[in-house]
Amino acid sequence: MRGAIILAVLLVAGAARAQDACEALRVAPDAELCAVTPEGCAGVFTAGQGCAAYCATVGMVCVARFGGQPGCQREPENPQRCADDTGHASDWCTCAPPAPPDPPDPPDPPAPIDPDVRVLARQGDRLTWCGAPIRLVGYGHYGVVAERAFDHVAFFDRLAGEYGLNFVRVWGQYHWANDLMPFPGGRGDYDLLAADLDFFRRLRAVALDAARRGIVVQVTLFDSVQLEGPSDSGNRWIDSPYRRANNRQAYLDDPTAFDALGDAPVWVEVNRPYVERVVDTLCDLPNVIYEVMNEPMGSGADAGRGSPAFVDAVIAELDRLLARPVCVGSKVVSTNDNPLRTVANPRVDLVAVHVPPERAGDYAAVGKPILVSNDGDLSQVSDAHGFGELTQGARAARVRAYAAGAFAADVVGRAHLEVLDKDLHGASWLSRDYQPRAENVTPALLGAAAEAVVTRATPCPGLLPVEPDAGSPDAGSPPDAGAPDAGRRDAGPADAAGAVVDAGAPDRGVARADAAPVAAADAATRARDAVATAQDETDPFGCAQQGRGGAPPWGVIGLLGLGAVRRRYRCAR
Asked: Is the pTM here over 0.85, yes or no?
């Protein structure tokens, strides 16, 4: 009895709800409401509009149709399909609420994490470090490598030691440089067919010191900003080493020619060899991200100079170079290109986006790790360039807004944050010659970034090459060219016990107990390097071989144990 009462109550309630839903048909022109049931409505259209339109008046769909006439006349002997275009002025329609949508497919489970992958790597949609997911939170400036006066050791100690940050972004081509560039010379005299050995030594020292502190370094290879101009600050294309007036080879008359490919000299002789030099310098380290280009699409009103074809060509070159057995370190490649375009590229591991804080979470579901960068321009203290003129507190609040958006629904390892602080320039911010200094850090921004840290900066043990501490009194100085080990690296990274990593093994990155074969190969490398060293004492850049077709004129390849490689480089002087 009780069940029957409950059923009756439910039927009455359902009929009341249906009556309310169907009322719109009662007052609709060219329609008659003829019946109301708990399941829906029924009636006749009178102006040829069809059953789909009739039912849509009350947010329902047609489930049955018959011939019909005004006055609620139904012709059960004349069934029709709901979607038929009968041309009738009137038909009978039975309407019901639409079926509920199918439940969404459950999200794919996260890709399993392989704890044996010890270097920085992408595993599924996450970045991992030391075999565990990591969230990168960083603070930095693009001139860290270019200025030897920038004390990167003290800088890293503060980032990792005081604030637990674990990421920094640097640039390979920093056209405001007062000191180092990948190419020897300077403004008006760059030699684009040679390599500045001091630059590559410092690049390696910066990355190695960062690795010792558990800091990941994103090395941005190219920059579209230097190809823009004229700009209000007059320090972009006018100072680019690629501008004809700034180099010995008379590249380039127009910045739009920068991203030429194929057999274009700027690609074959300058850009592709430069990419190889960077990879040769870093590819045994566990903590490097290779970023193709800063803002190839441009920023704001600026027009980007890095075409999609150029970005893809650099990615393919990185993929080829990092696949070599000697490259036992991180192979993570990132792009700052159109995120939806590059997500589909299987060679891209990390998608970098430069967005305002309200869009920091826009790309959280693209299926790859995302690196969100703050608007380093808009959040500066100075308004001389039309930027924000914000207080430190307001700038820190922007950093917190970025973190809130980026990490709103974060699985650790999926979203990451870079805080750019141009105040590291100090008083030189308004000048043409930027001079970033480590002591000019902004504590408010560091503190705001540190609030987002969930993975403290911790070195990953057992993977670093055995080299002199770059933070020693001799840090940054070139090795003694006459020393027996000058310009060489051990055949593989060594762990604390001295076991050498097998660079060619499928499970590279895991220390081998049996190092004898590698040691034998290393002895052969030492012998080759000793010959090169003897020659370098009198001819350090291989100029006696006329550079083109001879031994590499720069020592970075030797530093990485690649003395047998032969490249077509010119002498630095």
From this structure: no
The stretch 271-285 carries a mean pLDDT of: 97
C-alpha torsion sign, points 503, 542, 265, 292: positive
Asked if residue 243 lies in contact with residue 252, where contact means CB atoms within 8 angstroms, the answer is yes
Q: CA 83 → CA 72, 100, 570, distances in Å?
A: 21, 20, 76
Q: What pLDDT, on the 0 to 100 scale, is given for residue 433?
A: 74
Residue 120 exposed, middle or buried by CB count within 10 Å (0-12, 13-18, 19+): buried
Q: How far apart are CA 445 and CA 479, in angstroms?
A: 37
Q: How far apart are CA 175 and CA 255, in angstroms?
A: 14
pLDDT of 239 reads: 86
Give every CB contact of residue 5 below 8 A, 6+ residues apart in sequence: none
Q: Which residue has the higher pLDDT, 57 or 200?
A: 200
Check residues 554 and 249 and name the one with the higher pLDDT. 249
The span from the CA of 170 to the CA of 220, in Å, is 6
Taken in order 110, 116, 122, 126, the sign of the CA dihedral is positive
Question: Both tokens of residue 565?
Answer: 């490689």
Rounded CA-CA distance 522/494 in Å is 13
- Tell me the three-class secondary structure of 265-281, residue by residue: HHHHHHHHHHHHHHHHH
Q: Using the 8-state DSSP alphabet, how is residue 398 labeled?
A: H
Phi, psi of 536 (to 5 degrees): -65, -25
Written as one letter, the residue type at 98 is: P
Question: Which two structure tokens, joined as six digits, stand for 368?
Answer: 């790859």
Token reading at 6: 């409950």
For range 397-403, the mean pLDDT: 93
pLDDT tens, position by position, 315-343: 999 999 999 999 999 999 999 887 878 78
Residue 75 pairs with which residues in a beta bridge?
67
The answer to whether residue 139 scores a pLDDT higher than 80 is: yes
Residue 246 Cα to chain centre, angstroms: 31
Half-sphere exposure (Cβ direction) of 519: Cα atoms closer than 13 Å? 9
* Two tokens, residue 73: 């006349």
Strand partners, 132: 129
**Percentage with pLDDT > 70 across the chain:** 70
Give Cβ neighbours of residue 412 (< 8 Å, ≥ 6 apart): 126, 133, 134, 135, 454, 455
User: Average per-residue pLDDT in the chain?
Assistant: 77
pLDDT of the residue at 468: 58
Q: Which of 360, 210, 344 is nearest to 288 (CA)?
A: 210
| H or E stretch at 33 | strand 31-37
Taken as a whole, the chain contains a residue count of: 573
CA dihedral 546, 550, 555, 558 (to 10 degrees): -170
Contacts of 6 (CB under 8 A, 6+ apart): none
Burial state string for 158-180 with b = 16 or more CB within 10 A and e = fewer than 16: bbbeebbbbbbbbbbbbbbbbbb
**What is the residue type of 260?**
A
Residues 225/236, Cβ–Cβ less than 8 Å: yes
Residue scoring higher pLDDT (513 or 271):
271
pLDDT tens-digit map of 79-97: 999 988 888 999 999 999 9
Tell me what pLDDT residue 45 has. 95
Dihedral in degrees, nearest 10, Cα atoms 391, 397, 398, 403: 150
CA distance 129 to 216: 9
Q: How far is CA 237 from the centre of its chain?
A: 25
